[in-house]
Design goal:
Chains A, B: It catalyses: (2S,6S)-2,6-diaminopimelate + 2-oxoglutarate = (S)-2,3,4,5-tetrahydrodipicolinate + L-glutamate + H2O + H(+). 2 copies of one chain form a homodimer. Chain A is of the alpha/beta class. The first copy, chain A, has 12 helices and 17 strands. The longest helix of chain A is centred in the C-terminal third of the chain and has 27 residues. The interface between A and B is large, with 83 and 83 residues.
Amino acid sequence: MIKVNENFLKLKSSYLFSEIAKRVKKFQEQNPNVSIIKMGIGDVTLPLPPACIKAMHCAIDEMADTSTFKGYGPEQGYLFLREKIAKFDFQKNNIDIEPDEIFISDGAKCDTGNFQELFSQTIKVAVPDPVYPVYVDTNVMAGRTGEFKNGQYKNLFYLSSTKQNNYLPDLPNQKVDLIYLCFPNNPTGATIDRNTLQKWVDFALENKALILFDAAYEAFIQEPNIPHSIFEIPNAKKVAVEFRSFSKTAGFTGTRCAFTVVPKECVAYTENGKPVSLHSLWLRRQSTKFNGVSYPVQRAAEAVYSPEGKTEVKQNITYYLNNAKLIKNTIQNLGFHCVGGENSPYIWIECKQNSWDFFDFLLEKAGIVCTPGEGFGKCGEGYIRLSAFNSKENVEEAMQRIKNIL
Amino acid sequence: MIKVNENFLKLKSSYLFSEIAKRVKKFQEQNPNVSIIKMGIGDVTLPLPPACIKAMHCAIDEMADTSTFKGYGPEQGYLFLREKIAKFDFQKNNIDIEPDEIFISDGAKCDTGNFQELFSQTIKVAVPDPVYPVYVDTNVMAGRTGEFKNGQYKNLFYLSSTKQNNYLPDLPNQKVDLIYLCFPNNPTGATIDRNTLQKWVDFALENKALILFDAAYEAFIQEPNIPHSIFEIPNAKKVAVEFRSFSKTAGFTGTRCAFTVVPKECVAYTENGKPVSLHSLWLRRQSTKFNGVSYPVQRAAEAVYSPEGKTEVKQNITYYLNNAKLIKNTIQNLGFHCVGGENSPYIWIECKQNSWDFFDFLLEKAGIVCTPGEGFGKCGEGYIRLSAFNSKENVEEAMQRIKNIL
């Protein structure tokens, strides 16, 4: 008898964004004349940078000619892209990352979801709360948790990020083996300074733990004391893996390209304490289960690092950050407490009521879609997330509507 | 302490195609003047069909404009593509598959690799021998096998495909729960007729087993008695999932698009025997760990179903099949036994010696790269695979070189 992986049955019945989509659909059907402004899911709205468009057209023309056609590429990604990343995202900032430590993929969601496959089922996993649901759900599917009860899964260690700790979780008061960190944070928009991040690296070194550092929002960082990479921290290469994405940086949410940095010196251990290279394991995982990213897409990603690409990306980031500023100012002037929005496209707002109720309130009274904090975990209850990924006009209209109802 | 998934350590040290690449690289370095003809890895050589190129250019222009820009698409794939697939690949042939039973992905390798995540660790898995290594390696990683010994992993059930059984494995003589079948077969090129496939479906129905049917080479089928889809077989929808790909059909190996059909009535069971919809589980898996295929790539795949696309794809398939015919005739005239090559781009050749030795012989004496059968499993020992994915000129040259040395 073919038996299911019953861990899947522990998952909460619906994935956050599907639930939001369902409620929005229902509302729109009942109110066809309301022009809904979606400030929920963090999806970009500006078109791809012209440099990327140009590079993609060129690459497609290559695919049209036998002499330049590209079949299977390297599973790890083309060297032309990995070299640009190593140079401009790391070496330029005096971070010693080599091209062969970089793995190109079709999304940070996939990579943060798949990376846990490399580890034993018995490890203790620490996740932020509120959390990007992928970190949790993929560990549930893998069987590392117990049942879901009172907003949390048994056996996971939750790193509470609250108003009290300024949305920077305390170090675990017990041994944990795998630690997910995300800065600038999704969903809160909070950032971490170098000294605090150093404490996490030290914790990992002391406990032979591993940090999975999600830096998908790195491009939004404006302040100089905020690290762009965990590898700015001394010795982090021994105990950290970093995930980055072109999705939010350059508008690739529908184009699909991301990368993961697995330093050669980063290890995990066998039961007997023998170190095993995570770089080798991830390479084996990727070459077995993945076939590389579409060639034209990798060429588009490469163009992000061209002089034109850099300028265009910067303009887009500035555009979104101006939206974020407007949202933050409006919300704060209405007397709400919030965080994020300065080095992040997200603003995390204390709504002083049940977050799904506030979600329904904003949808029904103002036609605005937010993301209810409860969907990100127990500590998200009482909060909502607003996203700056929208047109300036929509954000202005949304803020006007919010001022009218609050 | 962060502990590794020790199942990874059971994997044979190198993945087949990496080992081939290593040997070829070494030979080329030592013999820089030899023009190597690669007939090993099954990678297409003809450019993308013009219809696909055109569609991709259009889609990229959409990505350049705010009003037509596409961000996150549906994880299951765009409806425009799923509708075309349902209509032209299934409904046109009187197979009742609906668009919402189709899941678009970036590769059949990923899907055949990932699908096993839906099942319990305790299931008994049957794999062909010789086998596409992904079926085996992903189950090793998941912990469903013992150690590798004498060319096989403990606990796997191997479906021997040999000269004796005409490369069509016998039904298992014991209970198995998950059965991988691949027709037209990779690596042998053998095909299965409807009556024989019916026996497998009946076996699955009787034993509450599930068939994962890999039909990546379906487009090469020329003879009318060979099923293009397992869903041509009555009741197969209850016990089968089918994998297809644009890679070999339309030259998408570097462009990346594939799909998986999970019928709504297909189930697996809990320990207590309660049926669970695999469609729901796969949707949950994909929406958690995957973010959909690049929009321009999905538009390119859609163009495969346009009148121009169909004609162009057919021309490419004919081109490769003509190569296959030439290879098969040459090899048979030299007195070798072989199979495949008529409804498949692969020719499976009995070499009457160790297959890696014959690999080295062809490489060193003729500058030809084949795939040694041993890399596909114990039953592959004594065989090599030649691929018809090459230019006519290269295939002619390769056959001349082979005639000279054999």
